[in-house]
Amino acid sequence: MSLSLSIATYNIWHHPHKRQERFEALCAEIKQHQPDILLLQEVMSTFHPDEPFVSIAEHLAEATGYPYMMMDPYMDSPDEGLAILTKLPFERTDSSAAATANINHHCAIRIPFSIDGIRFAVTNIHFNWRASDIRLDQLRFVNEWIASQTDDTTIEFLGGDFNDFPESPLHRVALHEWVDLADSYATRTGQLAATTLNPVTNPYAKKNDGVTTPSRYDWLLCQRSPLPVTLQHVQLIGEHRLPHHLIPSDHYGVLAHVTLH
C-alpha cells in the first residue's frame, strides 16, 4: 500500500497592504496547486473587521475547497497565528501551547493522520525572527514535543518559516534528525534550492526589515527514519503573478510531492 501526498508551507504575510487583492491572489494560487495539506504562517485571526475572530484561514478553506482546518493564534501576537488546511480527515489537533508555559515554545501545531493504514503527521512552525539562540531552543523543544506525541510507525513532516537560512547553526542541527526536502531534491536534480524570501524579485520582501539578500527561510522537512518515503518533486509556489492577480505574499511557498509506503 502506498499514498501519494502533497504538502505545502506558505507564510502569507500578516500585513494590511492590499489585503483583499492579495487574498484573491492567494486563493488563485492555492486552487492552481491544490496541495493535500497546507501549512500557513502569519494567518490573520480576523480577516474582515465586521467578522471578529473569523480568520483568513477559514475564508481560504471555504474559498478553495478545504473541508478540514485548524487555527491557533500566537500567544504573544493573537491577531495572527498558525493554521493547517487539509483535504484529509485527521485524528486530532495538537498545539505546543498546551505543553508549555514558555511563550517562545508556543510556536508549533501538529496534526496526525491515518490514511489507508499509513500513519503520518505534519507539524507547522514559525520560529523567532530576532535571535539564533531562541530559534535553536525552539527547535530543541519542537523535536522533543514531537517525540512525545509520535511512535515508530508514524512518518513525521515538519514545515514552516524557520527564519533562518541553510548552513546556519539551526539548519545544521535540524539535519541531525530531519531531511530538507528542497535541498534533497535540488541535489538530486543538480540545482540549487530556490530562495523563498527574495527582495530582488519580490517587491513585498523589500519591506521585510533585515532581509537584503535572497534567503531560503521556509523549509519542508521529513524526519529521518526507516519508514520509506519517496520524494517526487519540490517547487516554489506564489513566486509569479498569476493572470489578473498580485503576488500574494512577501514569502514564496514551498510545495513537495511525496509517496509514503
TrEMBL record:
GO molecular function per UniProt: endonuclease activity
Top-level taxon of origin: Bacteria
Residue span, Endonuclease/exonuclease/phosphatase domain: 8-251
Keywords: DNA damage, DNA repair, Endonuclease, Hydrolase, Magnesium, Metal-binding, Nuclease
UniProt cofactor(s): Mn(2+); Mg(2+)
SUPFAM superfamilies referenced in this protein's UniProt entry, alphabetically: DNase I-like
One Pfam family linked to the record: Exo_endo_phos
Name of the protein this chain belongs to: Endonuclease/exonuclease/phosphatase family protein
Species, as recorded: Exiguobacterium indicum
